[in-house]
Design brief:
Layout lengths: L1 H17 L7 H11 L5 H11 L2 E5 L3 H13 L3 E5 L2 H11 L3 E4 L8 H10 L8 E5 L4 H10 L3 E4 L4 H15 L1
Parallel strand pairs: 1-2, 1-3, 3-4, 4-5
């Protein structure tokens, strides 16, 4: 009986000793090497990224909408600014001069059409392309937004990939 107990205790120890150490596992070593590989000088790389990075201003009274599109575009390499209403959007656009503005229509303080109209009247921002992104799909609203100076009219729900495609299209037109 003693031999069977000692054999049971020894087997797992022998089995564990026979298994390769996790540190010796080649797939683990490769994964670790990728994580700990020395990076190139971060400073010049960040300067290059800052020059090439385009800025998108997302204007929507819904924090969830701003966060969803902002997170997606941020992960796609854009610098993202956000505003909760048209009034704040005009102020941010004048100060930061984004490359593209994505604007909702129904917002407090200043609605999207009025904000687009102000931006297109201002010499410092009149060339910034504007995408209207709204839940209102009425033809009259679309016509009014485009008449105010919007470049693209999209309706919600809109996939983030589709929004990015329109942003990229407007950026390629600007050069």
């Amino acid at each position: 009986m003693t031999s069977s107990i000692s054999a049971t205790l020894v087997r797992p120890l022998v089995g564990a000793a026979a298994l390769p150490n996790r540190r010796d596992d080649p797939t683990r070593a490769r994964a670790t090497a990728r994580r700990t590989a020395p990076s190139r000088s971060p400073r010049p790389q960040s300067r290059v990224r800052a020059r090439a990075q385009r800025t998108v201003l997302i204007v929507d009274d819904s924090a969830d909408t701003r966060e969803m599109y902002g997170s997606y575009l941020g992960h796609r390499g854009f610098r993202v600014l956000m505003a909760p209403d048209g009034e704040a959007a005009v102020q941010i656009a004048l100060a930061q001069r984004p490359d593209v503005i994505v604007m909702d229509l129904a917002m407090p303080r200043l609605n999207g059409i009025s904000a687009v109209h102000r931006l297109k009247q201002e010499p410092r921002t009149h060339n910034i392309p504007v995408i209207i992104l709204t839940g209102y799909a009425f033809r009259a609203i679309q016509h009014g937004a485009l008449e105010a100076g919007a470049d693209v009219f999209l309706t919600k729900p809109c996939l983030p990939e589709d929004l990015e495609r329109h942003v990229q299209s407007l950026l390629s037109r600007r050069g």
